[in-house]
Amino acid sequence: MQRIGLRRAGAPLLAMTLVAMTCSIPVADAAGTANIGTATDVGGGRQAATDHFTIEDDWRERLDRLTPAELPGLQVAQAAGEQTAAAAQAGDEPFETTDQSGNDPRDFTSKFMPYYRYTELENDIEVSELVMFGFFAFNKRFGMTYEIPVAKEVDFKGSNSVGMGDTILRFFLRPESGEFTFGQNKNLSLMPLLEFTAPTATESAIGGDALIMSPGFAVAFDAPFPKPPFSLGFFALMNFYDFDAFREKNRDNTSRVRGRWFWMQPLSKPTPQLSVFDFSGLYIMTELQPVYDIENEHFSFWIGPEFGKILAPGHVLYVKPGFGIDPDADEGDRDYTVEVGYRFFFN
């Protein structure tokens, strides 16, 4: 019977499958070689010249002895090996969002996003702050945001305090087990969060004098609409429980439940080139912040629509006004806010 010579197999899974179809082979040690002593070659009746040979050489010899009738098995094994490897690689890769505004919490791309924000409370206290805000991706499934108020001014009805404010660190984890697909290739991700507010303020009047820990959970998913433009948006629901791990004696206890709920909706298609004075790359992202203070049994609600423009890939400019709903002056609720920021993506 005619023997057919084949090229060297590229995948170990393929070779192992073929060997199992024909005969058994010795188990390899950690170095990738088989200790077999003096062996007899089944096809040629000759003695092996050495006590050690690589399994790769043995596979190649056995592949050379395949007959035409055994070729379909080779093709099936090769196809199965390729599909298995592709599936394993695809399963380990996280979903990649198409959002270019920098707002999707599923987007683990490092960014620098400084902003300036002005806030007026219902009790007439005014707060101005310049914040160095950014996201650092440790890998495709673990990242951290940082918010450092490098300059903060609090106006207490004519008495000002200026300095650095408290720093906020927020950690995001996106486990593979928390990713789901629905509809037409749409994604839903469940993400545990952990936020720290560190007492880094240089003045007590502009800081909390407490270390606040905020474990949380986020649900982010593509908009469940079938057609554009609404199918291009996404929802992100972030929820936290805030409590003080450490505080100064003159500070009240912290115990509150806080939500940050987002709906991002593109308004026009972004362009691959720099575009400033046109209507491309526009979007609106509405944020709702319900907060319930457990210690004082007080509920507050704030809404802030963000209007932004994607100037070019990796460059975003936005303005975000915000309004308190029925704010309480005694509790120091927010009356209104204005935020202006810029986002730069590190590719």
Sum up the structure in keywords.
347 residues; mainly beta; Porin; 2 domains; 15-stranded antiparallel sheet; two-stranded antiparallel sheet; 17 strands; 12% helix; 46% strand; globular; disordered N terminus
List the helices and strands and how they pair.
Elements: H1 12-22, E1 33-35, E2 52-54, H2 55-64, H3 71-92, E3 111-112, E4 115-121, E5 126-137, E6 142-156, E7 159-163, E8 167-173, E9 179-182, E10 186-198, E11 210-222, E12 234-247, E13 255-266, E14 282-293, E15 298-312, E16 315-325, E17 334-345
Antiparallel strand pairs: 1-2, 3-5, 3-17, 4-5, 4-17, 5-6, 6-7, 6-8, 8-10, 9-10, 10-11, 11-12, 12-13, 13-14, 14-15, 15-16, 16-17
Characterization of this structure:
The chain is mainly β. The protein is built from 3 helices and 17 strands. It has helices at residues 12-22, 55-64, 71-92; strands at 33-35, 52-54, 111-112, 115-121, 126-137, 142-156, 159-163, 167-173, 179-182, 186-198, 210-222, 234-247, 255-266, 282-293, 298-312, 315-325, 334-345. The strands form 2 sheets. It has a 15-stranded antiparallel β-sheet that branches. The protein has a two-stranded antiparallel sheet with strand order 1-2. Helix 1 (12-22) runs antiparallel to helix 3. It is globular and about 85 Å long. The model is unreliable at 1-53 and 84-91 (pLDDT under 50).
**CATH homology group of the largest domain:** monomeric porin ompg
Overall, the morphology is globular
Oligomer: single chain
The share of residues in extended strands comes to over 45%
CATH class of the largest domain: Mainly Beta
CATH architecture of the largest domain: Beta Barrel
SSE series: HEEHHEEEEEEEEEEEEEEE
CATH topology of the largest domain: Porin
| Secondary structural class | mainly beta
Give me the Rg, rounded: 30 Å
